[in-house]
Specification:
The protein is an all-alpha fold and 68 residues long. It has 2 helices and no strands.
């Protein structure tokens, strides 16, 4: 809610919730497929790296965020 104009918050929230639902509905099956292809340890490593990347991205962008 601090990344854009207040009037766009409902639209941003709707997009966020929609994409979260798509992710939750599709990617468990992708994860199972990846486990069968590259193994559970590699899937865990990739997941960990993605989470760490998201944390770093959030930290960087939260410092840049300016109230609009």
């Amino acid at each position: 809610t601090h990344m854009g104009p207040q009037r766009l918050v409902p639209k941003y929230s709707a997009i966020h919730i929609t994409l979260s639902g798509v992710r939750g509905g599709i990617f468990p099956f992708v994860g199972i497929g990846l486990i069968n292809i590259i193994g559970i340890k590699m899937v865990f490593l990739i997941s960990t790296l993605l989470i760490l990347g998201a944390i770093v991205n959030t930290a960087i962008n939260s410092r840049r965020a300016r109230p609009v």
